[in-house]
Amino acid sequence: MTYSHIIRKTLNIKDKNIHFDPETYILEDETIKEITYKVFEATLTYMPKACEKCGVVNHAHTVIKNGKKM
Predict the structure, then answer these.
(1) Are 40 and 27 in contact (CB under 8 A)?
(2) What is the model's pTM?
(3) Which residue, 20, 32, 46, 56, could crosslink 25 as a Cys pair with Cβ 3.0–4.6 Å?
(4) Handedness of CA 45, 46, 51, 55 (dihedral sign)
């Protein structure tokens, strides 16, 4: 089993296109409003066909998979 598989299973992430790099997958703890969180860094390994929110078609790399989701 890989780190990606174990982390996806633990966090109940169904998307197989999310890859956790074993060198950088876990960052330092982060405290927000006096609550400490574990922060994981991952990469989305595919190019989206269109924007999920507005539906703009991705031609010539106009849609960038950028940002974060909880």
Answers:
(1) yes
(2) 0.53
(3) 20
(4) negative
